[in-house]
Design goal:
Rossmann fold; N-terminal domain of TfIIb; seven-stranded mixed β-sheet
């Protein structure tokens, strides 16, 4: 079984944007979501995008007026972000998001960790360490937004463990999910057409079955107040503000 990083570097990174469907649609969806939050960054406001991918969050935040630190361990996705950013104020870093604070100066007005990123961390203690750093890195009144899938309240069985993701004339991408006590064993299955014949490639890795209540409890212990919880695009979204 691959590590999450190897899975992205060797398998998922090169096809990630294709799996999204259309980058501009994803970017506009996040742009519309951020607009509902009435974000009003002042001069020099800093945002951090943890697990930024190709920039679906970082670019609309930069367009709003934030100086954005965008961090991801997948070089393919960082390269995509840089190619899309143009003159927008985005500093892209290829590294583990767990060490984001060494790249952050001054503290942040906004930190986002979306796209189911937290569950890709190796264990719950690493998640809690990142959340503690988020709490410390936010300015008073700063905001944290996270999104995770619900892997705790429902365990699929039988054919429901197969999740069709995207298909075209040349590619078909499917996930197979095997639930264990504290993790989900994810098998990503890519069928690609080459020379008129279909070829199958499979890569597997683990996702945490992370409890939203545990995330919120850690944030509150770190001095954040939970402002809102919602469901959006199949994700549990939490919004928390750092208390003065």
């Amino acid at each position: 079984m691959k590590s999450v990083r190897d899975h992205y570097d060797e398998f998922l990174g090169p096809v990630y944007s294709w799996i999204l469907g259309d980058f501009e649609t994803a970017r506009r969806r996040n742009e519309a979501f951020f607009a509902t939050l009435d974000l009003a960054p002042g001069p020099g406001a800093v945002a951090v995008d943890l697990g930024c991918g190709p920039g679906c969050q970082a670019l609309p935040l930069a367009a709003l007026g934030y100086d954005v630190l965008a961090i991801d361990f997948c070089s393919d996705l960082i390269d995509e972000l840089v190619s899309r950013a143009g003159e927008l104020p985005v500093r892209a870093v290829c590294d583990d998001l767990a060490v984001f604070r060494k790249y952050l100066e001054p503290d942040a007005d906004l930190i986002v960790c979306m796209g189911d990123t937290l569950v890709h961390l190796p264990d719950e203690m690493t998640v809690f360490g990142v959340l503690d750093d988020v709490c410390e890195a936010l300015k008073p009144g700063g905001r944290f937004i996270y999104a995770i899938r619900d892997y705790t309240s429902y365990v699929p069985a039988g054919a429901d463990r197969f999740v069709p993701v995207r298909a075209s004339d040349e590619r078909i991408f499917t996930c197979f999910l095997d639930y264990r006590d504290d993790v989900v064993h994810v098998h990503d299955i890519l069928h690609s057409k080459a020379g008129g014949a279909w070829e199958m490639t499979v890569s597997d890795y683990l996702k945490l079955r992370l409890d939203r209540a545990a995330v919120d409890a850690r944030l509150m212990a770190g001095g954040l107040g939970i402002r809102a919880r919602m469901l959006a695009d199949g994700m549990i979204v939490g919004i928390a503000d750092k208390l003065a």
